[in-house]
Design goal:
Length: about 140
């Protein structure tokens, strides 16, 4: 049985209902799309689809500074796409996609094979996580 694809109207209605808003209130939806409109943040989400990560691992995979990664993670967190868990001396970031937006993550997961950069990021993620297993973040 094929899963139903959400329309933009259905997403905004469902999101508004779950977030206590009214139908047609698409501010949260717009914030989520704005958060994903940046290439670095889209690449971070691509990594977080696979597993929860700390800032230093994301920075190593994407070849960005930890400060830059932290700023991007803050935007994703503010949009409700990422949660933070404190583990000892570091923070672990994981994807926390609200139900009406999960189709978008599914779309990214299904289409990332078409994007060489996203594939390269996943290969480097495997390498980085193997290296950092002994010295966690």
């Amino acid at each position: 049985m094929r899963k139903k694809a959400w329309t933009l109207q259905e997403l905004s209605s469902k999101a508004a209902g779950e977030m206590g808003g009214t139908v047609g209130d698409v501010q949260d939806l717009a914030q989520m799309f704005a958060a994903l409109s940046n290439q670095s943040r889209l690449r971070i989400v691509n990594l977080l689809i696979e597993k929860a990560l700390c800032v230093s691992d994301v920075a190593r995979v994407l070849s960005l500074s930890q400060s830059n990664v932290s700023q991007h993670l803050t935007v994703l967190h503010n949009a409700g796409l990422v949660s933070v868990q404190r583990v000892g001396a570091f923070s672990l970031y994981r994807l926390t996609i609200p139900e009406p937006y999960r189709q978008l993550v599914h779309c990214l997961r299904q289409s990332r094979e078409s994007f060489p950069l996203l594939q390269a990021d996943l290969r480097k993620l495997r390498q980085v996580t193997e290296e950092s297993e002994q010295a966690r973040c």
